[in-house]
Amino acid sequence: IKGGCGVMVAGQAMGLWEVKDCARVRSKYICKQNQDSLIPSPPVPQPTPSLTGSCPSGWKSTNAFRYCYK
Description:
little secondary structure, 0% helix
């Protein structure tokens, strides 16, 4: 089908794709978007506990973890 919709299959053939007529299939969809139009969020810095093992205010840790978490 020229210009058809790619549909994910469930059941025994799960993970495979079928091409269906877009006008006849009533499914959810995803849209393609150029990557340059996306503005990524800057990464949030993850604090590491000091040598004394304390975390910044609002963060937690335990002896089993080397990192702080929220």
